[in-house]
Design a protein that fits this description.
The chain contains nine helices and 24 strands. The protein has about 450 residues and is of the alpha+beta class. The radius of gyration is 21 Å and the shape is globular.
Length: about 450
């Protein structure tokens, strides 16, 4: 006998105190203001036999230990198994040091507290479960995203190379224009949650020292404006490791920046959602399931020579390592690391050398009727996301980056071995070596099937 769906949504405030370290650059920044609060936003869907919980956090990443701590508490208090819980980050660059990222050290007091608040969002959503229906949709939006990695005339590949740089040749690849959507409403039509999935790294704000959820937060507030305060909206970052909102060719010229631009782009997605919501087929019953698997991968190799160079770099004052010219590390392909950042990557060499050479990370698939969520533990390149979706029978397939763990940029083998560039440089924000993507794609295919 089919049981009518129930669903609930809730949010908890996860804004850290002022003075906290902000990651997302190469040097520490410290929160001096709050442009808008950070939240963990949850939606829970129950079909009478299976319960699924999804939590999206206004953070740059979700380390596996934070996700696992939250999932353990959710299992204990809500009786939802870890395989049925997805915890992901939006990737705002104006949040808090949830992990060791480039030149910024983890705020350990915050990470211990954050897992409790993440679990609370799910528990509150469970308390609010009510008869509900769920609908799905997908459209393309090709006008607002661009590949930030470009081939240059000198043969290198560079990220964010400068608008209308005369040395530009062409982007290294395409974009993913799909906006995948899920809408959850109560049986009386009251909105519960609006979920969108789109490939856009982040946009940026007006003050890099002010805490903000970036355009992901603007999307939630806009959807509340359009649909009411009962609607808690989640914006999932799809495979967007090298996709942003800047057209370096100069063909698209934005007149706004910061929050103003973030609001405009959030409105584009919200507008698509409001249109598609009117046309969705709403389901009162859905088969629900969740599967977790373990991705085993090799981290980038740090050689004895790398460590020797790192020690030399860090033994002198910042910026005075004059011997640096065209490397200096074994894992650099193509574009050299800028002189001003050599010490950052020297420190990262030392960090990586302390990690196991073989590492693991979670990969998850959640089924919601004919739709599926593929949750991956890092910043996935757009090609990988499109490959996975092309081979999936689910409609739509939500490709969610930065979920359940964080291993940094998950670069294609071509990027690692032939192109190089910032995303490929060895760091805790770019752990996987060549061979990781084919293994991950095969693992996802096995879960989807």
């Amino acid at each position: 006998m089919e049981t009518t769906l129930r669903a609930g949504s809730a949010s908890t405030n996860i804004t850290p105190p002022l003075g906290t370290r902000i990651p997302g650059g190469f040097r520490p920044r410290y929160a001096e203001n709050v442009d808008d609060e950070l939240f963990a936003k949850a939606v829970v869907i129950d079909n009478g036999t299976t319960r699924i919980a999804i939590v999206t956090c206004d953070l740059i990443a979700i380390p596996e230990k934070v996700a696992n701590a939250a999932k353990a508490r959710i299992a204990d208090r809500c009786d939802i198994p870890p395989a049925h819980v997805m915890v992901n980050a939006t990737h705002t660059h104006t949040a808090v040091a949830i992990a060791d990222l480039l030149g910024v050290d983890e705020d350990t007091e915050y990470t211990e507290w954050a897992s409790l608040k993440i679990a609370d969002a799910v528990e509150l959503a469970v308390w609010r479960l009510k008869p509900a229906r769920v609908g799905f949709a997908s459209v393309n939006e090709e006008r607002i995203t661009f590949n930030r990695r470009w081939h240059m005339k000198d043969g290198t590949v560079r990220f964010n190379p400068g608008i209308e740089n005369p040395d530009l040749v062409e982007p290294t690849g395409t974009i993913d224009p799909e906006v995948a959507m899920m809408f959850v409403e109560a049986d009386d039509g009251t909105p519960i949650s609006a979920v969108a999935n789109f490939s856009l790294h982040y946009i940026g704000t007006d003050n890099s020292n002010a805490l903000s959820a970036d355009y992901f937060g603007h999307f939630d507030r806009l959807m509340r404006h359009y649909l009411g305060d009962t609607c808690i909206s989640l914006l999932w970052n799809a495979a967007s490791g090298q996709i942003n909102n800047t057209d370096f060719s100069g063909q698209t010229k934005w007149t706004a920046s910061g929050h103003q631009q973030a609001v405009k782009m959030a409105n584009v997605l919200a507008g698509h959602f409001i249109v598609e919501k009117q046309l969705m087929e709403m389901h009162e019953t859905l088969d629900l399931s969740g599967d977790l698997a373990t991705l085993t991968f090799q981290r980038k190799e740090i050689t004895a020579e790398d460590l020797q160079i790192a020690e030399q770099v860090l033994s002198v004052p910042q910026g005075t390592y004059d011997a640096y010219e065209t490397g200096p590390f074994s894992w650099v392909v193509g574009e050299p690391i800028p002189h001003a950042l050599v010490d950052v990557y020297a420190h990262e060499c030392q960090r990586l050398a302390k990690l196991p050479t073989q590492m693991t990370a979670p990969v998850q698939v959640i089924r919601l009727g004919e739709a599926a969520i593929v949750a991956l533990p890092g910043e996935v390149f757009v090609e990988t996301g499109m490959n996975i979706k092309a081979k999936s029978d689910a409609k739509p397939t939500f490709l969610v980056s930065l979920a359940n763990g964080y291993i940094g940029y998950i670069c294609t083998d071509k990027a690692l071995t032939q192109e190089g560039g910032y995303e490929t440089w060895a760091a805790k924000s770019s752990l996987p070596a060549a061979g990781t993507v084919p293994t991950m794609e095969a693992l996802v295919a096995s879960l989807l099937n």
